[in-house]
Amino acid sequence: MSWTITVDDIDDLARGSAVLGTGGGGDPYIGGLLAKEALRRHGDVTVVSLDELPDDAVVACVSMLGAPTVMVEKLPSLDEVMRPVRELSEHYGRPITHIMCIEVGGVNSTIPIAAAAATGLPVLDADGMGRAFPELQMVLPTLYGVTSSPLAYSDEKGNVGVLRTIDNAWGERIIRVAAVEMGCSIMLSGFHMSGATARKALVRDSLSLCMNVGRAIVDARADKVDAVERATDILGGRVLFGGKVTDVERATTAGFARGRATIEEGGSTLVLSFQNEHLIAELDGRVLATTPDLIMVLDHENGEPITTEGLRYGQRVRVIAAPADERWHSPAAIEMVGPRYFGYDLDPHRFDGTVRAGAAIADAESVS
């Protein structure tokens, strides 16, 4: 069933998407400001479920690619967001009918709302991941044969381009170089697909989940109950550890924010390793959880999500883990987003600490 996003909904959406963003996806406050501006200027946005999506719909993503840390100083504009959308429509000679989020993480949940408001198009209650990942090809549509190409991109200076590649991995390699040269963050529109394909390849009801998590954190504070526990319950996860941030090593390299965060309490030490998003959580040298399941950091007292660029010495936090969409645990998906892809010689550890094989991808044939 369709519903409407208004200016008043953006704070909850941004907060929930920052939780599901697993530390990455960019500053939710910045993305929220952009979405609010677009909604005030152009009006509310209709959100459409996958079940309502016509087979012949023309779906494309609108997103930011790059290192989230640079967005603190390199603020995107609505014009920058709209350029690749217009470019992609002109390239196909057929207008986009529905906008989707490529991930429910930080600005990549709110930038599509801004684009939908400016174009008057509906946005899907779905996304390509059910979380955030750092590289272009790391989306469930890749497993269904959906290509990111042609991929339109733009920067704040007005540079615009369209990239065609042989597969999504090559798309990542080439567009990352362009992003670095264009200031380490750019706007994209791509993953052009039909409504029939979108229903197979996307994660359902993910914007609704963001809204529910964001509202639950605020409501828990009003009810004077534990906001972290409430968010954890909604996500079906568990609290891994709580303590004080004692060290953060972070650098922007090759278009990514990479680093480690150390959290200590009661003589124990939790280490988080991240590349834009949190990838590994280890307590006293023992692995608790890894990608592709979700690892998230929330403020200990108020439950507010803390991104990797927002981690600071002295913060008191709790780290939680929750299950990813089951398709991320298929062999093909683990090869694309598992610990070894990122250079860690580890088997994937699920949010509950177990190590076991996942489900296969159903109907993961090449589609268009």
Structure description:
The protein is α+β, with helices and mostly antiparallel strands. It is 30% helix and 28% strand. The protein has helices at residues 10-20, 28-42, 78-92, 107-119, 140-143, 168-181, 195-201, 206-222, 227-235, 331-337, and strands at 3-5, 45-48, 58-66, 98-101, 123-127, 151-154, 160-163, 185-194, 203-204, 238-253, 256-265, 268-275, 277-283, 286-290, 294-299, 316-322. Strands 1, 2, 3, 4, 5, 6, 7, 8 and 9 form a 9-stranded mixed sheet that branches. A hairpin with a 2-residue loop joins strand 10 and strand 11 (256-265). Helix 1 (10-20) packs across helix 8, helix 3 crosses helix 4 (107-119) and helix 8 (206-222) packs antiparallel against helix 9. The longest helix is centred in the middle third of the chain and has 17 residues, at 206-222. The chain starts with a strand and ends in a 31-residue tail after the last helix.
- Helices and strands, in N-to-C order? EHHEEHEHEHEEHEHEHHEEEEEEEH
The proportion of strand residues reads 25-35%
The oligomeric state of the chains shown is single chain
Got a strand count? 16
Structural class: alpha+beta
Helix content: 25-40%
What's the mean pLDDT score? 91
Over the alpha carbons, how many angstroms does the gyration radius reach? 19 Å
Task: Report the total helices.
Answer: 10
User: How far from one another are the termini?
Assistant: 25 Å
Per the principal axes of the C-alpha atoms, what is the gross shape? globular
Query: Strand count, sense and closure of the main sheet?
Result: 9 strands, mixed
Q: Pick out the low-confidence regions.
A: 363-368
